[in-house]
Amino acid sequence: MRSLIKIEEPCLRFAFDQEVEDPRDGLTMFGPLDSGKPYGIRAGVIGTPDGIQKWKRWVDWAQGPVYTPNPEAGRPPYPGFESAFRIPWSSTPALTVTVDEEELLRRVVVDDRPQRVYGTVGLYCDGIKSVFDEDVKPDMWFVVIPDIVRQYCRPLAVVDPTVRQKAKTTVFNSPAEAKKFLETASLFAAQNEAAEPYFYQEHFRNQLKAKLLTDRIATQVVREGTLENIQSGGTTRREKGLHRLQSNIAWNLSTTAFYKSGGRPWKVSGIREGVCYIGIVYKRDDRSGESESACCGAQMFLDSGDGVVFKGAVGKWYNTETRNFHLSRSAAKESHCVGP
To answer: At what angle do helices 237-244 and 246-260 cross, to 10 degrees?
Structure first.
């Protein structure tokens, strides 16, 4: 019989070298490890006109305390952004890029999934890159998406027939043929361009981050529906459920904004100087029909408190006899960084 080994929860270090287990307790009582740094959140925002307004209202709302209706140990109150992180966060973005809502709705309902996700992601990537030459450089970007983008720009998503639009015809008979074509490429630019949508994963968030990775642009994708969740009470089960998550959402988005803007909210206590720690995780992938197929990821923690995430390829990493996962040396070398 297999046994479980319990590892005690490590303490986290905050301002004034104070240590506690829960990050929210530490931020509330002592403030972040990098107290006073950065000097404020300089965030860019890209979205539809309505989405941008919802982001501004949410940031204003997050300046004050957020209480859970029925207190829960796992969802402590949120004291307000400046109370927790000791720096200001203005609801006026450093830069704003407006996405054409009609064009977005046209791209997000085409019937070919690779073209649908590629076209929708391109609208946001092109918008962010269009302001590269501006004097103001945001530390991070909030990518505000309508809920329909999350609904239709995920693996296996199918567009409702009542709104579905025909995608552009291509020279390929199937996505598999397009992917194979990418390996050899063509002398004709038009064919290479037609094959490109089939190169990326059919997932809005992952594809967006992959396209912006070389430019080292920190992003946070957030749904408009999440930003709308600032009302009290609620009558339906869904509204009551969202209300229970308000403090949790405030904590998560605020901590993300602080960290991606260059501040360290905390670091693990007891890490030896000059030593990094790496955790690796595997997940079985049964979509191919092979029992050995799995994907893997790893996260590296430095003694400074910073961290880096690595993503490996899907492969036959699971041994059905030993019931263990093992990544080959060559596959580990080919893993790539996907961000902090």
So the answer is: 50
Nearest 5°: CA angle at 59, between 257 and 266?
A: 30
Q: Which amino acid is at 58?
A: W
Give the list of residues 6+ apart from residue 108 with CB closer than 8 angstroms, or none.
116, 120, 148, 149, 152, 153
Left if phi > 0, otherwise alpha if psi is -120 to 50, otherwise beta: which for 41? beta
Backbone angles phi, psi at 273, to 5 degrees: -65, 135
Domain boundaries of the chain, sorted by first residue: 13-266, 277-339
Indicate the DSSP class of residue 213.
G
Q: Which helix (H) or strand (E) holds 294?
A: strand 293-301
Q: Give pLDDT tens digits for 181-226.
A: 555 555 455 556 667 777 778 899 999 998 898 888 999 999 999 9
- Residue 271 CB: number of other CB atoms within 10 A? 17
Residues 141 and 44: beta-carbon distance below 8 Å: yes
Of 221, 210, 209, 206, the closest CA to residue 51 belongs to 221
The residue to which tokens 């992601």 are assigned: 121
pTM for the model stands at 0.83
Q: Which value, in Å, is the radius of gyration of the alpha carbons in the chain?
A: 22
Identify whether the C-beta of residue 60 lies closer than 8 Å to the C-beta of residue 250: no
At 278, the amino acid letter reads I
Give pLDDT tens digits for 118-147: 999 999 999 999 999 889 999 999 999 999
Q: Where are the alpha helices (DSSP H) in the chain?
A: 23-29, 49-61, 81-85, 101-107, 113-129, 147-152, 175-184, 189-195, 204-212, 224-227, 237-244, 246-260, 329-334
Please state whether beta strands 43-47 and 140-145 pair in parallel, antiparallel, or not at all (unpaired). parallel
- Per DSSP, 165 falls in state B
